Amino acid sequence: MNTNDKTQLYIKLKSIVRISGYGNIDTYKDFQKGTGEKIYKRSGGIEQFFIDELNLNNKKDLEIFTNNPKVTDKINQINILFTNQFSSNKARRTGFGTFEKFYTWYLKQGNTCHYCEIEQKKLSELFESTKITSTKFNATLHIERIIPKKPYSPNNCYLACSLCNNAKSDLISEKNFKLYFAPGIKKFYKDLYAGKIVNNY
Ligand SMILES: [Zn+2]
């Protein structure tokens, strides 16, 4: 493992697999219940687990990762996603099973609305510049269920902007929404972003 691989693994263990207790170690390593505690409780604790997994020599070596602002920023960013979109929502926790599965699904979405294809970054800019305002919605892409009656799962979810998600609701199928509604919403965002139109009312 080179340093870059170790960095990625550290981020994964901290924020995606979320190793914070001995029980998490058992699950991650597929150990029998209680094994993680038996190994690490009296010999360095959770910190030693990270040292072992990253193939490091000591605590000092671990500081390369714990004191690296790029690493801690990335971890904080993933933690925000965990808190806002996963742990606070029981149906999502149940549907996706683990945050790792949720995160894998999330990365595949590419930070864009599945329907109108607006990027999260552009949508945030539209809200921040008050080209679009709302008392109900913000720029954050929603986690939309393709078939609203079915549970959350990687196969039944897409990221969708608030306009697409609310317009589609449980009224329009994915196929019809893409065909009849998404092109209009796409054009609206494009013209608004380019300053061709305003949206005052
Ligand atoms: Zn959209």
Shape: elongated
The profile of the biggest β sheet is:
2 strands, antiparallel
Radius of gyration: 21 Å
Query: Any idea of the CATH topology of the largest domain?
Result: Herpes Virus-1
Between the first and last Cα atoms, what is the distance in angstroms? 57 Å
Q: Helical stretch count?
A: 11
Task: Please provide the count of β strands.
Answer: 2
Q: What is the second-level CATH architecture of the largest domain?
A: 2-Layer Sandwich
Oligomer: single chain
Short note summarizing the structure:
Helices cover 59% and strands 4% of the residues. By secondary structure, it is mainly alpha-helical.
Model description:
This protein has about 200 residues and is mainly alpha-helical. It folds into 2 domains: about 5-90, no CATH class; about 105-195, Herpes Virus-1 (2-Layer Sandwich). It is built from 11 helices and 2 strands; from the N terminus they run αααααααααββαα. It has helices at about 5-15, 20-30, 35-40, 45-55, 60-65, 70-85, 90-95, 100-110, 120-130, 160-170, 175-195, and strands spanning about 140-145, 155-160. Strands 1-2 form a two-stranded antiparallel ribbon. Helix 10 packs antiparallel against helix 11. It is elongated and about 65 Å long. The model has no long low-confidence stretch (mean pLDDT about 95). The chain binds zinc ion.
